[in-house]
UniProtKB/TrEMBL annotation:
Protein name per UniProt: MxaS protein
SUPFAM superfamilies hit by this protein: vWA-like (SSF53300)
UniProt source species: Methyloprofundus sedimenti
Domain DUF58 stretches: 61-248
Domain of life from the UniProt record: Bacteria
InterPro entries, A to Z: DUF58 (IPR002881), vWFA_dom_sf (IPR036465)
Pfam families given in the database record: DUF58 (PF01882)
PANTHER family: BLL2464 PROTEIN (PTHR33608)
């Protein structure tokens, strides 16, 4: 289910010069008082504060300056490799579509522009919105196309996605299961260092914690197109779960080294999880 949700964008919007809905640090025509300035430094007599001017020890006219609200470019960079079609507790491909629609709707609701880069073996122009814009109809069409697509291969274009982002700071959601080599993720993060990045790690509990203690289990490598049948036993179950726990720590260390905290989505996409994520960062 798609929920209309207004996220709490902060860092990426602070220095954007375009007016919008988010608190910025640039002086402009906002409503939030920032500071007093001498009239000669801010020659706008409409904002003269007579009380502050009378109290000024240098007998200078004082003008009120205000903090401008800023507009933000919001991008979703999505892994479109075969592993993102995994069906377990939920369908990862459906979750990807839900995330696309929800993030775009939230961005447009606040007057922000939304962009999308789908990262498959190549970057398909039909699955690309760059530069970011306010066209919700284009997002809806793209969501339907992804929903009906058969995802194949690896996300070999993953590290090329940064080429489609603006020069100014943007809020970038990075959606993937991140089963790719850590070196690829580090290379991507280095290219995104001027943006505010939110890594969304899409895992499914059936991949690790929901494994049976005993029984025959088939494991499929969707990207390589290979299937392996194993006899599940407690020792193998523990080994797999330990590997997932180590991978989680590895991803956390990788993203934290670039100043961002990953959000693990193990129960599908929920808009309130994203809001809670931003609230925790703000707190």
């Amino acid at each position: 289910m798609i929920e209309n949700n207004i996220f709490y964008y902060r860092k990426a919007a602070q220095y954007n010069v375009f007016p919008g809905a988010h608190a910025g640090k640039i002086v402009g025509n906002g409503l939030l008082f920032k500071q007093h300035k001498p009239l000669i430094a801010a020659p706008d007599p409409r904002h003269i504060d007579l009380r502050a001017s009378m109290l000024n020890p240098f007998a200078q006219y004082q003008v009120k300056s205000f903090q401008q609200q800023s507009r933000l470019d919001v991008f979703l960079l999505a892994d479109l490799s075969a592993s993102m079609s995994y069906q377990g507790q939920y369908n990862k491909q459906h979750v990807l579509v839900d995330c696309l629609l929800s993030v775009a709707k939230s961005a447009h609701a606040t007057g922000d522009r939304f962009g999308f880069v789908g990262c498959g073996q190549l970057i398909d122009p039909q699955l690309l919105i760059s530069p970011a814009n306010l066209q919700q109809g284009r997002v809806t069409e793209m969501a339907k196309q992804i929903q009906q697509s058969v995802l194949t291969g690896q996300a070999e274009s993953f590290t090329q996605a940064a080429d489609y982002l603006p020069d100014s700071s943007a809020l970038v959601f990075l959606l993937s299961d991140f089963y790719m080599p850590i070196n690829n993720i580090q290379q991507q993060m280095q290219r995104l260092n001027k943006h505010t990045v939110v890594p969304l790690v899409l895992w499914d509990q059936h991949e690790s914690s929901a494994l049976p203690r005993w029984g025959v289990v088939k494991f499929s490598d969707l990207e390589q197109g290979k299937t392996r049948t194993l006899w599940m036993r407690p020792s193998l179950q523990k080994k797999i779960q330990t590997a997932f726990a180590q991978r989680k720590q590895q991803l956390q260390h990788c993203f934290r080294s670039f100043g961002c905290e990953p959000l693990f989505l193990k129960q599908g996409y929920r808009a309130e999880s994203i809001s809670q994520y931003f609230l925790q960062l703000a707190g």
